[in-house]
From TrEMBL:
Superkingdom field: Bacteria
Taxonomic classification: Bacteria, Pseudomonadati, Pseudomonadota, Alphaproteobacteria, Hyphomicrobiales
Signal peptide feature range: 1-23
Annotated protein name in UniProt: Lipoprotein
Organism listed in the record: Aquibium oceanicum
Keyword Signal found: yes
Keywords: Signal
Length: 108
């Protein structure tokens, strides 16, 4: 019993690591609605170029769970991604939000 408790305490300390980090990648597109269309498109293109996010690449799915991570298990799996992967994931969320704002407002 004591051995199980010794193993459980560190796991509880790691709870929420991967799940909360992935949820932070999901960005609302509403606050981009106040930016003028040409400025928003320029900002989106700049961010996409900085992180090599292309329209012909894989679909932009911010907060996408890794294939090995079953639903509901993310809260006990620590986020072992590198800092650059975390930054790129956040950029994907921002670009996807900008895309939704551009599409909703029908910016040319």
């Amino acid at each position: 019993m004591k051995f199980a408790l010794v193993l459980a305490v560190p796991l509880f300390a790691l709870c929420g690591c991967m799940s909360s980090a992935l949820d932070d990648e999901i960005v609302s597109s509403m606050h981009y609605d106040s930016i003028a269309c040409p400025d928003l498109i320029a900002q989106r293109n700049s961010l996409a170029a900085r992180y090599a996010i292309t329209a012909s690449g894989p679909a932009l799915v911010p907060g996408e769970r890794p294939k090995y991570l079953e639903p509901g298990v993310g809260m006990i799996v620590p986020d072992y991604r590198s800092a650059s992967d975390k930054e790129r994931g956040k950029a994907i969320g921002e670009v996807a939000a900008m895309d939704r704002s551009i599409a909703r407002r029908k910016c040319g």
